[in-house]
Amino acid sequence: MYDYIKGTITAVTPEYIVVEAGQIGYSIITGNPFSFSALEGKETKVYLYQNVREDSLTLFGFKTLEERFLFKKLLSVSGIGPKSALAIVASGDAAKLISAIEAEDDVFLTKFPSVGKKTARQIILDLKGKLGDVAVNEIHIEPVKQELTDGLSPELEEALLALQALGYSDRELKKVLPKLKEEKLSSDEAIKLALRLMTS
Predict the structure, then answer these.
(1) Do residues 195 and 140 share a domain?
(2) Do 20 and 50 belong to one domain?
(3) φ, ψ of residue 52 in degrees (nearest 5)
(4) What is the C-alpha separation between 47 and 60, in angstroms, rounded?
(5) pLDDT tens across 19-60, in order?
(6) Are residues 15 and 47 in the same domain?
(7) Nearest alpha-carbon partner for 134 in 199, 63, 192, 49
(8) Beta bridge partners of 29
(9) Domain range spanning residue 30?
(10) What distance in Å separates the CA atoms of residue 14 and residue 27, rounded to the nearest whole number?
């Protein structure tokens, strides 16, 4: 399984980009190939997901680990294939998407291509409470400001890191922090509670 490719982007098409590495050009399908246009001709790191079927082997590419993490989670949902998952990741904000799932907001989810009411409910059923659990392990993040983490338990500090990785600002984290401090929670529990608080 490939984790990433580092090479020169030699072509950007409406459906895929070409990355040349080791004198081989790799065709990589991305949600929005034109987002790579400014990087054409430059060395770039693209995170990969290799999809293997009986009749094809396809590489899907992502700019960030966050995008790939969400893509893989969406693939685990019954009824969602690689193209649908890619379209959702490409057209949505990660924090808003996860918040919508936690809040069971199927109306928000049906705004994505190929997602009807039934599929939206399936996404919520399969993924609610499961996206914050591994965010810290999957997404590279910068440290949370010291002022936010002073005096916190390791569990709460880890939860803040995960929430920051999902796109929440220090200002938003400060709002929910007092509530999180009230109870002794594991990092997973704190993440889930914070997501509920921020979407209520």
Answers:
(1) yes
(2) yes
(3) -110, 125
(4) 8
(5) 999 999 999 999 889 989 999 999 999 999 998 888 888 999
(6) yes
(7) 192
(8) 16, 60
(9) 4-62
(10) 12
